[in-house]
Amino acid sequence: MTAAPRDEPRPPSLLRNALPPVLFLLFCGIVGPIFLVMGLVTDGPEAGWLLPIGILVTVLDLVIGVLIGRGRYRSAQKLYRLRTQGRPARAQVLSFDPTNVRINDQPLLKLRLRIHGADLAPYEVESRTVVPDFRMPLLYAGDLPVLVDPESREWELDWDAAGPVAPMSPVAPPAEKTPAERLAELDDLLRRDLVSREEYDATRARILDGI
Predict the structure, then answer these.
(1) I want to staple 199 with a disulfide (CB 3.0 to 4.6 A). Which of 4, 41, 77, 195 is the partner?
(2) In sequence order, what DSSP letters do the residues of 149-165 get, joined into one string?
(3) What is the torsional sign of CA 26, 29, 33, 34?
(4) In angstroms, rounded to a whole number, what is the distance separating the alpha carbons of residues 26 and 156?
């Protein structure tokens, strides 16, 4: 069976990356354009403040939107360059830790990888990367395909080349942990700054109340 060809990536566009955040900020900060229009159509000294405030808020929305769009554009440029010119390599998964943050309902993980390949000196990288839930089993395999720029050492996980995720075999449910084990795990999470002090105190109180 022949593998389906990978879709050709589309070159990034500054307009496509900047327009959505600009429109979103103008929508959220609609008071700026409203004041601007009211200042233009309303006469009288009591309405004199509407026009400058409307201009200020509208310009601020535009500037912030353009800055966000420029950041999105640069990120898209890097992604496009790696997907069109990047060299295939491998990444050994040295560790991955949760950050307790989810973006678009997908977990953000702290990855530590060792990238290596033909004519590429091995080097280690750390990155906070969004890993889809259904891709999580690939991290346990310990080795992932990546695309690398040998000169800048920029990289990207090449999920398309990782292959299908093997279904996990059913396992017996783990035995319920004792309160002492749960408290020890909670102490470890606090030491690694994976929970706040407030979350630690609240969880510890619930464990102690259940004894």
Answers:
(1) 195
(2) -TTT--EEE-GGGS-PP
(3) positive
(4) 33
- Three-state SS at 175: coil
Give whole-number Cα distances, 75 to 69, 84, 131, 140, 143, in Å: 10, 14, 17, 27, 25
The residue type of 158 is: D
Contact 157, 136 (CB under 8 A): no
Question: How far apart are alpha carbons 141 and 154 in whole angstroms?
Answer: 23
CA 145/CA 141 separation, integer angstroms: 11
Query: What does DSSP assign to residue 53?
Result: H
Q: How far apart are the first and last CA of the chain?
A: 58
- Listing DSSP states for 82-143 in one string gives HHHHPEEEEEEEEEEEEEEEEETTEEEEEEEEEEEETTEEEEEEEEEEE--GGGHHHHHHSE
Percentage of the residues of the chain whose pLDDT score is greater than 70: 89
Dist. CA 150–CA 1, nearest whole Å: 33
Residue type at 111 in one-letter notation: L
Distances (CA, A) of 99 to 49, 75, 129, 176: 46, 22, 10, 24
**45 has pLDDT over 50:** yes
Q: What is the DSSP string of 10-35?
A: PPP-HHHHHHHHHHHHHHHTTHHHHH
> Does the pLDDT at position 160 exceed 80?
no
